[in-house]
Design a protein that fits this description.
Layout lengths: L1 E3 H16 L7 H15 L6 E9 L2 E8 L2 E9 L4
Antiparallel strand pairs: 1-2, 2-3, 3-4
Length: 82
């Protein structure tokens, strides 16, 4: 799915704010991931197209954020147990 960088930046800034205000409670790894993604997306042109690529792997999949032809971040999503 291709959307502008600004879309993903807004989504993850909201998630960051919710975590900081105690509305959500992601684990430490989740908080670091959100902070890193916000930092990296903030450095990009907000109008730049950003693709999410699903990369299947044993036990789950990687979701890669691709903007300007470069991978910005990669998130591991494990298969659900049911």
């Amino acid at each position: 799915m291709t959307l502008p960088v600004s879309h993903y930046l807004d989504v993850y800034k909201l998630r960051q704010s919710m975590a900081r205000n105690g509305v959500t409670r992601p684990n430490e790894e989740g908080r670091r991931l959100i902070d890193r993604l916000v930092e990296r997306l903030s450095d990009l042109d907000p109008g730049m197209p950003c693709d999410l690529k699903h990369l299947p792997a044993p036990g789950g999949e990687w979701i890669a954020f691709i903007a300007g032809g470069n991978e910005v971040a990669r998130i591991w999503v494990a298969e659900s147990d049911g």
